[in-house]
Request: fold
Amino acid sequence: MTRDQKIVAAGAASGIVSMAVAMWMLSTLLPPPGPKSLAGALAYAARWLAFAALPLFAMIAAVGNARFLGEAIDPTRSAEDRTMIVNGRVADNTTQQSFQHSGIRSLEFT
Reply:
């Protein structure tokens, strides 16, 4: 493996380990779902969906701030730089994942 590949592999491995530790910690620290009714389960899921939407809010804010503070304030002029295009794609992907996640979570309890 090249030096760059080793750096990426180490980063990926540390990300996987960090995610596993975070999921274990969250599963032990989070309160139990509460009532076993459908309404109680949906209310419990809705609270955590709001938390899961934080990355979406952060990406929308990043794109909005970059547009407001830069030359691309008018999106019809195509003045976006490469960073803004990538951030826009990340925001789009995060939106799709958030809606899929909320749909799956809602169907899980019905």
Summary: The two ends are 48 Å apart (CA to CA). The chain has four helices and no strands.
